[in-house]
Amino acid sequence: MARIDVIMPQMGESIAEGTLSKWLKKLGDEVKRDEPIFEISTDKVDAEIPAPSAGVLTEIKVGEGQTVPVQTVVAVIESDASHAVAVPSVPARAAAPVAPTPASAPAPAARAVVDTAARPPAPPVSVPKPQGAAPGAPETAEERLRRRSTPLVRKIAAEHSLDLAAVPGTGYAGRVTKRDILGYIEAGGPGAPAPGVAEARRPPAAPAPGAAAQWEATPWPGDRVEAMSRIRQLTAEHMIFSSHTSAHVTTFYEVDMTRIARLREANKKAYDERGVRLTYLGFIVKAVADQLRRHPVLNAAVQRSAIVYRGQVNIGIAVALDWGLIVPVIRQADELSLVGIARAMADLADRARSKRLKPDEVQNGTFTITNPGVFGSYAGTPIINQPQVAILGVGAIEKRPKVMALEDGSDIIVPRMMTMLSISYDHRIVDGADADRFMADLKKELESFPEAGV
Has 244 been annotated as catalytic? Predict the structure, then answer.
């Protein structure tokens, strides 16, 4: 009989903790090796965690909604199925209270379906260095964890010339969260930039709790209340932060995709035989990757008063999930053929929907493409995925009437496969002329896509 500990895995170099969002197995259930047994949420990605061994789940140490450090034992598996099941060591989750309804409301009260994953933050933990410690003395494990934060937090700290060690943190072991550092900047903490400089470059802070409360919805009788999923909360925070950070401008280009449609139809069977689905989006990703090399300012980022021109072309593709939105990244997309891009897109999308993405696969994008056209959208104005400076929106690709000139100079209206591409860009470093040149070249490549490229 063997006792196997199931631990909270470290899902990325900068990940120090994870939230156990859902148990997929119950106490006493038999599990197979590599069979998913629980789901976790980190500040990067949701994922299903497989069992390290076959056996019976005999003990659950961490309940749903709890956030624990990596390497924490969350459960125990016994290889001997006859072993008695242990009593759970965590209390059952309490139902979250429903907002009170007015006394005059009709009889049925609003029904609440609330996930208690949102728990109050742990109190700040101070990790001072021992008195008399030498300046070059190695940090303790707690101090190392204290300094470890998400790339977004480190970016904000760098933009405001802040030492994270000076920012009070409310995360595990005093770890600094995005809310901590934005609040610290808003309060004008020690080491923050001078007021004039800070106002010029910091993102607007969220409204004070009292002011925000008046804008919160109050459930009415018959309403259903659900807590946001972890990924939905992070998306909301990221979108607000992006709208406060970048000077968003959007421009639109109509593109004739008729040639792409014909190439796709002519080669679809050959791609299917190779196990690859040839989509319109694959052609667009390929053309975007080519053009980003020719227009590096669209493949850049902002670092205070400097422009960082990325050496890699890593294109993120937004994937809509039932529980939120995620953006897996195709690395070195400019070095891939159309076949390679199609394979990468299918693989990343499939693993995103089955919660098998790794955190590293949703990081380090340099440009993002979102495709609301698959739902019938004509065009949109997407929000930039920070710290990038541009995002391309793809509208519905469908037959529309188009005026075309004949050789004799007369005009004719014909049906063509058309789409509307939109690009939202950061006007801090991308001028309108830069974005228009990029879009004009992208349009030209798509409308004259070489047959040899397929």
Answer: no
